[in-house]
Each structure stands twice: as structure tokens, then as C-alpha cells.
Amino acid sequence: MKIQPYFLLLILPIFAFTNNYLYSQDIKQSEAQLVGQCEGCEAVFEYGNRTLTPEDTLPEFENHTPQIKITGTIYESNGKTPAEDVILYIYHTNKEGVYPKTGNEKGWAKRHGYIRGWVKTGADGRYTFYTFKPGSYSSNPAHIHPIILEPNGRYYWLGSYFFEDDPLLKGKQRNQKSPRGGHSGVLTLTKMNGLWVGKRDIILGKNIPGYE
After folding, report:
1. CA atoms within 13 A on the CB side of 179
2. 105 domain-assigned
3. For residue range 151-172, what is the model confidence (pLDDT) as tens digits?
């Protein structure tokens, strides 16, 4: 069957949308550089066509307690200059310690579940995301996974966000000698306006093996 040219004009945008649905084209994954080893770090590219801002609210935030706000500043490698256009991807379990799925997940959402989000820093380097305190599983303390994507295309994982009052938190997690990104990730939450607020600053490349 001969395909008419006007039919191709109709279907080509559909293929283009499908291609962009899973991976953003702001920084092409094929041109990015993974620093070190990381299973699943490619998920940082999976925000599709959404416009990222310095603030995001993760799914199920309104349905669970305690509700938390995590904020901080991402700095350039000198530890002083705010880093602009850095993408931070975060994901975590539900209250039962499960990475929940809806059944139609694509890419790394098949592993990470749907409780995930992305923020992108502005000129002041700040980021904020709202979520709820996740559950633990096995003997692991409750945690939130973060992955960094720099505007130059370098991407890598950071140590998890933990919670200082978690009885499952181990000494090696509390007292890290060289924490990735310059912060152990252990948060002390303070109640403010009905939310539990924690702060974590990040230094790009700090204590990341293979980072240059």
C-alpha cells in the first residue's frame, strides 16, 4: 500500500511525542556523561516534556503524614557559587516501604515507582521538594534517593536523604567521612507551619570518585 505524503505529516508528530515522552531533550542522554557507576541514574532524564522549576511536589503528598519539606542550595565545586540549571531527581517508597506502581510504568519507573520528582535550580542554586516521610523495608532506614544532572551533562548519584530520629539509622550512615556531595544526607526535621522541614546543601562533584 502506498502511503500518501499528507498521512506521513500526520503521524510523524506522534512518533516525535512518543520519543520525547520518556526522555527529555534538554540534555540528550547520548551526549551525557555518567560519573562512576550507577544502576538507574538514567532516570534523571525521564521527566519528558514537563518544564522543571526549583520546586516540586511528589505524588501522594496530600494523602500521607508526616508531610515534609526538603530544601537547600546546590553549589558549584568551589562550595561557594550557587549552581544554576542543575537537575535533582528524587524518588522513594510509600508508607509501607514499597516502590508503588500503577502498572503502566515506562523506563526506570518500573523499578523506582511513581513517587518521584524533579527540580531544577535557578540562579540562586536553591531547590525545594514536598513529600511525605517514606516507610522502611528490610533493615534499611527510611530514605529518599537523589540523583544529580549537571547542565554540562555529567550525572551521578548522591547518598540518600535519611532522618536523624530513625532508629534503623546506622553509625556508618550518620558519620560518613567523605559524603558524596559534601553532606551525609541525615536530616534533622523541624516543625514549621504544619510541615516538617529539613535542609541539605549539595556541592557538585564533592567526594564523587572519577569527577574532574
Report:
1. 19
2. yes
3. 999 999 999 999 999 999 999 8
